[in-house]
Amino acid sequence: MNISTGVEDFQSAGFPMGGEPLVALDLADTLITVGDPPADLIAAPAAGAAWWELQARRLPPGPVPEPVAVRRLRTAVREVLDARLEGRAADPAALEDINAAAASAPSSPRLVADGDGLHAGTRWHTEYGGNARLAAIAAEVIALLTSPARAELLRRCANPDCSMLFLAENRRRKWCTANLCGNRIRVARHYDRTHRQEQR
User: Fold this and answer.
1) What is the rounded distance in angstroms from the CA atom of residue 188 to the CA atom of residue 106?
2) CA separation for the pair 164, 161 (Å, rounded)
3) Chain centroid to CA 34
4) Mean pLDDT calculated for residue range 35-63
5) How many beta carbons lie within 10 A of that of residue 157, not counting itself?
6) Where in the chain are the domains?
């Protein structure tokens, strides 16, 4: 499930951001919170289907979750990640929503035999309901926030007009994407420098 889908794939599908190491971050970034009202990038059925298709290789097989359940988990994920970045306690209801999603489809390790030998696999238990994809996303958030070293890598884009979150595996990373926010800030700085020189 660690197959990479890069930001270019997401951008060519119309999403400004995607391909982070955790699908949970990609899900949080489908809601642009700096606008009023916030922009839901997966509200349209076609956009939602495209996003889940891009994530399919990184998630357990199974049906695409119901939009209401997706929005509920996304709200909870965004809340706990924002709380971490802001140094405040997360809303207990958000924690409960994440825990409920994780518990709705528990997983167990299993051995898988193929032509190359034995490999570790995961079996998602959806016999009694629950959605394995949402459970996997919730499990990612739990693993991230309970790993102090990994949680320290969580960042919000340095562009004040952007709400995207990412893991700064390269500690110098400041922008959600270099080709969007990074370029915008560089162009704005260049314009300011040039404009100031012209006024002298």
Assistant:
1) 48
2) 10
3) 16
4) 95
5) 23
6) 7-199
Other CB atoms within 10 Å distance of the CB of residue 92: 8
Give yes or no for a contact between 5 and 54, defined as CB atoms under 8 angstroms apart.
yes
**Which amino acid type is present at position 32?**
I
| Residue 195 pLDDT level (bands cut at 50, 70, 90) | low
Quote the CA–CA distance of 87 and 78 in Å, as a whole number.
14
Which of 43-52, 92-101, 185-194 comes out lowest in average pLDDT? 185-194
Chain segment 97-120, per-residue pLDDT in tens = 999 999 999 999 999 999 999 999
Q: Residue 192 contacts by C-beta under 8 Å, 6 or more apart in sequence?
A: none
Direct distance between the N- and C-terminal alpha carbons of the chain, in angstroms, rounded to an integer: 57
The DSSP result for 13-36, as a single string, is: TT-S----SSHHHHHHTTEE-SSS
For residue 96, give Cα distances in angstroms to 10, 72, 77, 101: 30, 11, 11, 9
Question: Are β-strands 154-156 and 165-167 bridged in parallel, bridged antiparallel, or unpaired?
Answer: antiparallel
Task: Report helix, strand or coil for 38.
Answer: coil
pLDDT tens, 132-169? 999 999 999 999 999 999 999 999 999 988 999 999 99
Q: What average pLDDT does range 56-70 have in this prediction?
A: 95
What CATH number is given for 7-199 in this structure?
1.10.3300.10
Buried b (16+ CB within 10 A) or exposed e, 170-188: eeebbbbbeebbbeebeee
